[in-house]
Specification:
- Helices cover about 85% and strands about 0% of the residues.
- By secondary structure, the chain is an all-alpha fold.
- Helix 1 crosses helix 3, helix 2 crosses helix 3 and helix 4 packs across helix 7.
- The protein is elongated.
- The N and C termini lie far apart (about 90 Å).
């Protein structure tokens, strides 16, 4: 074994010892910090793991990993988590508003008719027309033959057409 290899292995052992000592000293405190500030235990665990992932990277930079350093990392991780959660909530709200504005009467009629179809018929229609899969791709997804998919699709189109015609007739009678 060369001297350089020995030194590298020694640095790796020292790095691991430093990290394990920091983990033992700070894990429970960091977890409790997140648990008090997040919505559930799983999120706290994920954020805690992120802190120690970053801490592991820092041990390679010859920086000491005191509990205060770990809390500094934790503060930044929590800030990033909060920003991300805020962006997600804002995005979901914007998408819901967009969805509500885009739906017109024809769309809601189609959505209602689709909801009244059986699950197999609805699935084959959605995979084919909304998701753009071919009948052979749909057959792979549904674990059935392409012929069966084409038959389901034919029946589903007819059933959807009947439902839409029935709704049109009932709306015409109401007016």
């Amino acid at each position: 074994m060369s001297v350089e290899t020995f030194r590298k292995e020694q640095r790796d052992v020292d790095r691991e010892k430093c990290f394990l000592a920091a983990h033992a000293a700070g894990h429970d405190r960091i977890y409790r910090y997140f648990r008090r500030r997040t919505e559930n235990a799983a999120t706290a665990e994920d954020l805690c793991a992120e802190v120690f992932r970053i801490a592991w990277e820092k041990t390679g930079q010859e920086e000491s990993l005191s509990v205060m350093v770990l809390f500094g990392i934790a503060k930044n991780v929590l800030r990033n988590h909060d920003r991300s959660a805020s962006r997600s909530v804002n995005l979901l709200g914007a998408l819901q508003l967009e969805r509500d504005h885009e739906r017109n009467d024809d769309d809601s009629r189609i959505h209602e008719a689709l909801a009244r179809l059986g699950p197999d018929e609805r699935e084959v229609l959605l995979l084919t027309y909304w998701d753009g899969f071919s009948s052979s791709e749909v057959s792979d997804l549904l674990n059935t033959s392409a012929t069966a998919v084409r038959m389901r699709l034919h029946r589903a189109r007819k059933a959807l057409g009947r439902l839409l015609d029935t709704e049109s007739l009932s709306e015409g009678a109401k007016r």
